[in-house]
Structures are given as C-alpha cells and as structure tokens.
Amino acid sequence: MPPLRTALLQSSGRLRDVAANLTALDDAAGRAAATGAGLLVSSELFLTGYAIGDDMAKLAEAADGPAAHAVAAIAVRHRLAVAYGYPERDGESVYNAVQLIGPDGTRLANYRKTHLFGCFEQEAFTPGDQPVVQAELNGLRVGLMICYDVEFPENVRAHALAGTDLLLVPTAQMHPFQFVAESVVPVRAFENQLYVAYVNRTGPEGDFEFVGLSALAGPDGAARARAGRGTELVVGDVDPEFLAASRADNPYLRDRRPGLYASLV
C-alpha cells in the first residue's frame, strides 16, 4: 500500500462561528489535497471553538446534522477524508466528539471523548463510553481519540491491541502542558507501534492559552511533521511498510505478559 499523506490543520478558527470554520476547513482541504494528502485532521471542537461557555450546548449538532453534511461536501469536493472536532448533541446529552468522513462523503466513524479534562469539560459534556472507535481508510485501520484521552496509556494500548495503525487525536492542549505534545505523544506512538496525528488549537482563547506543536508521530518515536505555535497546515506520510518493519523490530505487543497486569483493572 502507498503511504497515506496526512495533513494536520493547527488552528482555533473563529469562536462560535461554524460557517467561518467550515470555510476555513474547505480552504485547508484544498491546500492539503494540492500536496497529495488523502486525509485532513482538524483540532478539538474546531467547528465551534473551545472556550465558548453555555454556547457549547446551543451550537451542538447531531452527528448527521447540517455541519456533517457540509463537511461531507468538502471531502467530496477535494477527494480526501476529513476528521473534525465538534460538539455532538444526542437527545439531552452533549458530547465532545470527533467525526471521520471519507473522501466519498460517507460518515466512517464518530467518537465521543471518554476522559473529560477539568471542571469546564465535566460540566459541559457527557463522557463517552466507547474507548476504541475505528474505521478503514486507504487500507489502514484508523482510530479516533480526543486530547486528554491520549494521556492515559491504557487508552492507546487498547487501540494498539485492536490493530489501530493511525490514531487521530484532535486536541486543545494548553500551557503549561506542552510537554505532552513534545514528549508524551511520540512516546505513545513508539510504545504502541502506531502513528499518532495529534492536532492542536493555538493561541489565547478565554482563560486558556493553546500551545500548538501539532505532530504526526511515527512508530519510531520521531515526528514526521511538526507545527510551531501559530496557525499552520503541516503534512506528513503514514507509511504502512515502515510501520510493518517497525513492528517487527519492536515487538512490544508480542512480548506483553497480560497475566502480570491484572491489578491494572
């Protein structure tokens, strides 16, 4: 299989302006497609903004709502898959979600954040209860996760055991936790032998300051692409052949001894 060129849209967009953020996503998709990318990944809650208080519930949409149809049109127009963060409404519940839409406009997977960070998220959202959500894309098994979720090693290991090749992690990583982007994410990729696309917001937003530093980390622990602190589109390749060779050389999953780990659960 050829590598899957993956574009990371590091941006906070415009707070509360879904239409403007869809336009920005469309523009980024066009630029990503021009590089040969087959996948574009945006940041956590990209469609609405993160620090929007009570407006989060007002702007939340169903997984198959108007925004999903707009993103599907973007995917079809530029012939690439798109993963985007948004607040999802399901009945009376609101979830911090990420949805993956294929290049033909098909909704491939929808994930609800399972580990909510801090009082703001715990008050605004209902936690998801499905830890491993996957889809097939270009011959790769793609998994979904959001921000704080990746900081729990059990979460990423569950994906590795389920065969995830590329883990998409839209995030809203803030100061002073930039070491997660710099160090934790590459280590997660190495210890689980998969690729991790970690895509952050950037700049000040309400009481938060997002640090950027988005990265596509490979199974060797190296960043195939790394953004700075500002709004940026960076591109890197997810190479199935390199992944297979790395897994053969670093057999963590094969050498595990699950019988020793019962105390973890």
Which helices and strands, and how do they pair?
Blueprint: E1 4-10, H1 18-34, E2 39-41, H2 55-59, H3 66-78, E3 81-90, E4 93-101, E5 107-112, H4 118-124, E6 133-137, E7 140-144, H5 153-161, E8 166-170, H6 179-192, E9 195-199, E10 202-205, E11 208-211, E12 215-217, E13 223-226, E14 232-238, H7 240-249, H8 252-255
Parallel strand pairs: 1-2, 2-3, 7-8, 8-9
Antiparallel strand pairs: 1-14, 3-4, 4-5, 6-7, 9-12, 10-11, 12-13
Helix pairs in contact: 1-3
Describe the fold and architecture.
30% of the residues lie in helices and 29% in strands. Strands 5-4-3-2-1-14 form a six-stranded mixed sheet. It has a six-stranded mixed sheet with strand order 6-7-8-9-12-13, covered by helices on one side. Strands 10-11 form a two-stranded antiparallel sheet. Helix 1 links the parallel strand 1 (4-10) and strand 2. The N and C termini lie far apart (37 Å). It is built from eight helices and 14 strands. Helix 1 (18-34) packs parallel to helix 3 (66-78). It has 265 residues and is α/β, with parallel strands linked by helices. The chain is globular and about 50 Å long.
